[in-house]
Amino acid sequence: MLLIRIIEDNKNDYQNLKTQLLKYAFSHDVELKTEVIHDYQHLNLRTAPEDVAVYFMDIQLGASNGIELAKELRQYQQNTKIVFVSAFPEYVFDTFVVHPEYFLRKPIDYTELEKVMLALTAELTANNEEELTVKAVPDNSVQVIKLQRLKAIKLLDSDKRLLQFITTDQEILARGRLDHFKNVLNDLAFYQSYRNTIVNLSFIQKIDHDEIELDSGERLPLAATKRSELLKKFIVFRGQN
Question: What 8-state DSSP symbol labels residue 136?
Answer without folding.
Answer: B
